[in-house]
């Protein structure tokens, strides 16, 4: 951590977006994480993505659980809504908030311990219900906050800082999210903002359950030889399947890749995902293929990154439950207490 | 391909310290500003004294080329008030005699003559006296200090400040001032057998304005610099009620403000150029206007009008700016009728010139068409070995700090000349680079960035100030204001130093940097590289700091331009690849260290 506040001064040519905000306006308070923590880079990427999407900060709700990763919402979007839940319970609080006010943009930030250990069940259900959110797991393979115990995403055979080997199988959050029906699934690396920022932007714009597994080295407890979540290991084994450009309605569409190599996907909000293929055969619109590809690559020791699956026509929890368009928290007594006649009609429907 | 920045290159790091790089005498500015913040005024004074010889004088009058260069001016509206902070050191230093070099008694047997007792000669004497030289300074005036005393008005620079700083020099021993002695022949001076001669005679002649009526109105048309020195020496203490000052430089500004104090009620400055193009500094114009002196521009004087042998006013042609097809700016008649401005006195301040009637033209010294001698800008020597120039005498009228800078070089040359050394072998500056890390988040400097805006220097009430030509207008920063202003300094000498070998490319520095200075990217040609950094690096006067190739085949590129030297990159770096290291650049002056042997 640092003792001084980040100076208010900024680059004289720092651009502003259409809301008149600079990127600096999307920052939060000064990070208290260890110097060099991957989580801080992810915060930086979230700040950049929200600035580029021109999101009004007060329309964003950021929710998290417990852990170093879950502390990070304090370090970005200082003017957004925030909720820090108990350990592993962020998904249900987020689900509840989303049901109560469907108009906010929901960003869940969690760790591998928070989501794959204590919160695994919560994670699975929020995804399978199709809650409209972007769920980011800042995955470092350890419980950073409690001093580096293996987490459930730690790979079998990887070694702790003290040299102890992990004998349990690691949970692959991406495969799990795919199986649970997530409609936008990506993996990225805190050390590659060029890849991560567009993935966050597209995930925020996605309607439905969007999930990003972001590998984020813990410099304090999991950045040594023998770790499979260290900067060096991830850089050596990273296999990006594609590069993403997010084109919002305002931007002119420019084609900078050879035709045939680029896949265009229009999202619900009108934004276009322009995917530059790196792996020739990879198709991000096929869930089963994605799962197979992941398994095959994983077996070869590769870490597949990029946009792995997207269903642009996805529905969300509100669609399935059939809630009204007005956020529930804005309904007045008139709509909520419709009177005896209406009740009789409903009861008659059950006879 | 852009080369990796050499790890320890004194010039690279010196250039990062914009103010010191811009100061002709390369004063270690941030070092003295930190000492002021620390309340160590005497130490701050001595750093200045070593570099620029006249901290109290310069703290009130310097042209301050450091300020437009100051990095603070690029990250917010205004630079650090470097000049007026110097005055804080001078005003609060107390007794510094203990820190001054002890008077020398041992003589080295060499005798040096100096023509003129202005800042140039005095600074050469300051550098040479401690080495045992016997120095004789000749000046036609009755008091030493040159134009510092004769031209710069007392309401900007009090007598005591000049006396004190001249005394610091004359007390060094071996210096004899021969006041009231004009040198009429360089040949004659050479014949007296000095080992070397320094010419610091200034640019003493005020330019004439030969337009109709000049002769007839002569009694009330005065040459600005001559008039100012008459005021300084007490020969003139009145001027008419209505005064017109012709010219737009510092002399004009001093003339008009002096007039306001000697009975001038309706004082105007009238210039031929546009207001923006005037030679006077913005703050000088501000000060004049603050004293109710209007500045009328785009008016070319045509004629001094007079009646019965007495000046009645000045006739002006009104001009306007026109651009020719090559885009060049010209002043052309506007077609508007000529304007007549009535007045009782005119002060002509349209320029200053060199004059060397006393230097024979057959000695080997060449002069150009404006009577400026041909002087080597490195050694300050001329066509005649053993004769050196400095100050306004060398390259035409400049200012005090340039006179001092010339003097240091001339002193080195004189010393080398007397030791029989090669004048062109110039001594490199003394350089050190030391880590400022004290603990995990602790630095030996205050890295918290102040958000304060530039402080205004308190001034004496206008009505009171205008009553007495000898009453100093500026009151100077008190220690509290001085501290506030000192905290605005960004400590540019505390350098961000990068160790390639330690970097794990975690991006922590990139994320924390408030100014987006740092980028990890593929190496390329500088011009192209500048376009793809995290923030566009459009200020090409500022260097890019480039690392060696890192494990991901990228390089670290830091644009020095707007770095706050806040040290956050180093605080957030998990491996210590970034460190904050203080560079100290001290110019080598005449003495043992400058010897090439
Ligand atoms: C009105 C005015 C205001 C100024 N204000 C500022 C200011 O605010 N800040 C700033 O930095 N600069 C200012 N300057 C410029 C500054 O004063 C000069 O650049 C500086 O004094 C030059 O120093 P010098 O030692 O070269 O010469 P000078 O200061 O000119 O000294 C030369 C000395 O040589 C003597 N001399 C000349 N010829 C002979 C001879 N043949 N024999 C014997 N003695 C001789 C003269 O009497 C004089 O004393 C100002 C100048 C003027 C005219
Ligand atoms: C109910 C409960 N059980 C256990 C803990 C202790 N605990 C705090 S953080 C944490 C693990 C966090 O790991 P992760 O989510 O991976 O976050 P990281 O610090 O690695 O970013 C644990 C087990 C707790 N705070 N609450
Ligand atoms: S312990 Fe690990 S995860 Fe937590 S802040 Fe430090 S580096 Fe980051
Ligand atoms: S901020 Fe301080 S060190 Fe930097 S240029 Fe300005 S005065 Fe000099
Ligand atoms: S010191 Fe480091 S963090 Fe601070 S502005 Fe300079 S490069 Fe950026
Ligand atoms: Mg973790």
> What is the CATH top level name of chain A?
Alpha Beta
Query: Which spans of chain A have pLDDT < 50 for at least 5 consecutive residues?
Result: none
Q: Fill in the CATH topology of chain A.
A: Rossmann fold
Number of DSSP-assigned strands of chain A: 13
CATH level-3 fold name of the domain at 111-204 and 354-419 in chain B? FAD/NAD(P)-binding domain
Oligomer: heterodimer
Most extensive interface: A-B, 34 and 34 residues
- Percent range for helical residues of chain B? 25-40%
> Count of helical segments of chain A?
12
Q: What CATH architecture of the domain at 111-204 and 354-419 in chain B do you see?
A: 3-Layer(bba) Sandwich
The topology string of helices and strands of chain A comes to: HEHEHEHHEEEHEHEHEEEEHEHHH
Indicate the CATH class of the domain at 111-204 and 354-419 in chain B.
Alpha Beta
Per DSSP E runs of 2 or more residues, the count of β-strands of chain B stands at: 24
Q: Are any ligands bound, and if so which?
A: flavin-adenine dinucleotide, thiamine diphosphate, iron/sulfur cluster, magnesium ion
**How far apart lie the N and C ends of chain A?**
64 Å
Please characterize this protein's 3D structure.
The complex is a heterodimer of chains A (351) and B (597). An 8-stranded mixed sheet of chain A has the order 2-1-3-4-8-7-13-9, with helices on both faces. Chain A has a 3-stranded antiparallel sheet with strand order 10-12-11. Chain A contains 12 helices and 13 strands. With 351 residues, chain A is α/β, with parallel strands linked by helices. Chain A has one domain (23-321): Rossmann fold. With 597 residues, chain B is an alpha/beta fold. Among the domains of chain B are: 111-204 and 354-419, FAD/NAD(P)-binding domain (3-Layer(bba) Sandwich), CATH 3.50.50; 206-351, 3-Layer(bba) Sandwich (FAD/NAD(P)-binding domain). Chain B contains 22 helices and 24 strands. In chain B, the strands form 7 sheets. In chain B, strands 3-2-1-4-16 form a 5-stranded parallel sheet, with helices on one face. The longest helix of chain B has 20 residues, at 400-419. The complex binds flavin-adenine dinucleotide, thiamine diphosphate (TPP), iron/sulfur cluster (3 copies) and magnesium ion (MG). One iron/sulfur cluster binds at residues 496, 512-515, 517-518, 558, 563-569 of chain B. Thiamine diphosphate binds next to helix 2, helix 4 and strand 5 of chain A.
